[in-house]
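> tool_call: predict_assembly(chains=two)
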Amino acid sequence: AQKITQTQPGMFVQEKEAVTLDCTYDTSDQSYGLFWYKQPSSGEMIFLIYQGSYDEQNATEGRYSLNFQKARKSANLVISASQLGDSAMYFCAMRVLNAGNNRKLIWGLGTSLAVNP
Amino acid sequence: DTEVTQTPKHLVMGMTNKKSLKCEQHMGHRAMYWYKQKAKKPPELMFVYSYEKLSINESVPSRFSPECPNSSLLNLHLHALQPEDSALYLCASSQDGQGAKELLFGSGTQLSVL
């Protein structure tokens, strides 16, 4: 079964500290993509970072990095130097090929991150 | 222009009303998507248009009717909705429907059905 698991419903972090949000995935596809999105209370879904299954190096985008461990099927998001504006819901998602040969995203249930001043 | 624009931002409608949600992008993306999201839940895919043709319909009730007039526009026509259809409706686009790296989302339409 194709599945994304985010085991942390809620996380707290102190401002300026680093935080890791966990994501594990399950797929039998050889080619897949892993995404992280941020959704503030305003509702917009903001793309943060992408990792392809064949990418050998961990993806980085500014303060965001993706710790990709293929053998463990994990794709954790690391946010360095947390800011108050990082408080939001974070979703991990996986792009897979469905039965109709179309690509679609499988989503995790999300992690709510609160950054404390 | 690197945005997906959705209008309106908020919509309140009665169960007998007909309304439409609009989505627009000018990034040359050839795939566009409608998602429905309930509070504190992940988005649920409703429809995908790829090169202006409907490629995925996730068994959505017929009271939701998508339309893609051209490659930049995506509409969602609403008719005879139920209170349980109240949700955030997100539009997204990607370079294509097959191998695009990421979906870019609009800010959504918060829909309330009374």
